[in-house]
Amino acid sequence: MSGNKFDAPAGISPLDQEKVLARPHPRKEGPLKVTGQATYAYEYSAEPELQGAAYGYLVGAGVARGQVKSIDTGAAEAMPGVLLVLTHGNMPQQGESETPVPQEDGATPQMPDPEVDYYHQAVAFVVAETFEQARAAAEALVIEYADQTPEGDYVLAEVMEDAEKAGSDEESKDQRVGDFAGAFGRADVQLDVTYTTPDQSHAMLEPHASLAVWDEAGEALTLYTSNQMVHWVQRGVAKTLQLQPSDVHIVSRYIGGGFGSKLMFYGDAVLSAVAARKLGRPVKCALTRPQIFNHTSHRPATIQRIRLGTDGDGRIHAIGHDSYSGNLPGGSAETASHQTKLLYAGENRLIRQRLSELHLPPGGSMRAPGEAVGMLALECAVDELAEKLEMDPIELRVLNDIGYDPEKGPQRPFSSRRLVDCLQRGAEAFGWERRSAQPGSVRDGEWLVGLGVASAFRSNQVKPSGATVRLEKGGKVTVETQMTDIGTGSYTILGQTAAEMLGVRLEDVEVRLGDSDFPKSSGSGGSWGANSAGTGVYYAADELRSKIAKAAGYDPKKAVFKDGEVWEDNKCTLLGVVAAKAPEPLEATVNATFGDLDKQYAQASFGAHFCEVGVHRVTGEIRVRRMLSVAAAGRIFNPVTARSQCLGGMTMGIGAALMEELHVDDHLGLFINHDLAEYHVPVHADIPDLDVIFLEELDDKSSPLKGKGVGELGICGVGAAVANAVYNASGVRIRNYPLTVDKVL
Ligand code: MOS
């Protein structure tokens, strides 16, 4: 495998022709999904070695803290069809972890001992011939606990003071510039407000599911599992089961949504693997919906204090953002103040995040971890500041725009930043001039109508990513990479990238993903997938172009690829002919890495969200009436799939603003609304016409594709635009999300 490092601004490349890339292609795998032909992890059955898979049923702890004192498995084991009951008593030796929170680089042991760290942590795993038998036997287990559930350390507000004293690692991440306290004290206009956001659940469609099968010797594992990060789960499962990563084969071809919950792996994966090895037959497990809510991760609640100090003209001179969140020991903080380090000007800055110990289930990444909830607070605070200043909220944002990292100064400019254009273009398209600055002054029958705006910001990240691109004998092209498609469009845009580079049609490219046998890839997370995995495909295709040109007898520097042919001046050869004549397979495998352009340039995607709501004068009901997002995220590789990402983000942002909330039972230490009947997410009837505009942008410092992340940008700021519209409609400012009817009235 060769390597290719992206460490200087991208020059002109064949991608700039945009014959296939940046065009609106429907999803390659869409027809397979809607006709039920896409096989998900739990569904594999055709392969001979998968015949007769047994069903595993996970049993979660019934207390939030303590120890399992005893498990009587007798009755369960005697039930029809039961093959095995796993408990801490008969688990094999596993790799150790210092924290019950799954880590990207570590073992995630299940039931290594009788300790219970959180509610619905696995305490048993029942395997039977059918799902129903396994579930029935699980209910017949008699489990006694030494219950050490304490009162009170499940609620963030009750533990946040610990964080102040802690002097934790978090302090090293503070942004401290100038004299915040002095400047804030002297400011002509001061705003000091605290917002809260609740725990949230990813609520993806497909549950976490795994199907494990071992080779005959019981030495090598194949794990079909719904996971965003093939190389993380491969390494993590290997560490957990004390295997070599090369003895763990991961298959994750289709994923019914992840939103960050499937960055890590859980009991379904580890316990299916352990049971399958013991039984010498395949075992599969899908978590039930209630288990997903407490056994897997969630987005942690935050308490955020924002302080803004300006001069009389609205120029920010002091900007402060403190974010508090909690997690199990060893877990990480929700980085909700992160964007405030980069989004607005201000020469005196104090930006911090603090972490408390909280014994809820593990907190983890959920779509745009940090910004998604950070912007809920910051962008409402900016709206509050605009009102104090009697300024238009867009004008205030434009005034405080900054083209470089406010901490490092002009020597660290943004690689690209069209925030102001997004705000202004959106204002025009949405009819912002019709907004009344006076809250509660616009009526439509029984509805009070208001408009709201928010900026959008999501950091742009890139990760090493490899790919193989091959020219097949018939002239078709195959792309292989460990990259996953979590519903985002990876199959399609990676096919477009290869097609553009090799001058073929998209339908002539087969894209194969989600298999650890392929080159290691960035995986899907943090909005880095498209740009990173695309870069791997780009470099591999570039190397393949040289090989094809040489095989055709042309000068690689002069070769042009178009219409399924390779050209030099006025000579050309069909790619299929080149492949047929080549003595060796024409393929290239390249691992793309990234240099330090992200240190030289601050990198983020930008946007602006506009929302119109109606608030019912009598009932307080809030209806979103229309919404527009404008995004500037570098080259948009496919306007259809990118638009879908934005629509999904906007829908999720509306949910965050108006309904999503995990309710903490502070006696039992669990989330009690653990199903989709009681954890509310928007349904079609909640979502009106949504519109998306992409601004033209090529970011040549981000990747050779000149794109930036877009998948998470769509949610960042949305909820604040909704909340600001609710305030504009009703005059009611709600600082604790979600904005439910009881808070409006
Ligand atoms: Mo994302 S929350 O990194 O899948």
From TrEMBL:
Residues 1-32, 91-111 are annotated as: Disordered. Keywords: Oxidoreductase, Plasmid. InterPro entries: Ald_Oxase/Xan_DH_a/b, Ald_Oxase/Xan_DH_a/b_sf, Ald_Oxase/xanthine_DH-like, AldOxase/xan_DH_MoCoBD1, AldOxase/xan_DH_MoCoBD2, AldOxase/xan_DH_Mopterin-bd_sf. Its EC number is 1.17.1.4. Residues 35-149 form the Aldehyde oxidase/xanthine dehydrogenase a/b hammerhead domain. Residues 16-31 have a biased composition (Basic and acidic residues). GO terms for molecular function: iron ion binding; xanthine dehydrogenase activity. Pfam families: Ald_Xan_dh_C (PF01315), MoCoBD_1 (PF02738), MoCoBD_2 (PF20256). PANTHER family: ALDEHYDE OXIDOREDUCTASE MOLYBDENUM-BINDING SUBUNIT PAOC (PTHR11908:SF123), XANTHINE DEHYDROGENASE (PTHR11908). This is Xanthine dehydrogenase. It comes from Deinococcus proteolyticus (strain ATCC 35074 / DSM 20540 / JCM 6276 / NBRC 101906 / NCIMB 13154 / VKM Ac-1939 / CCM 2703 / MRP).
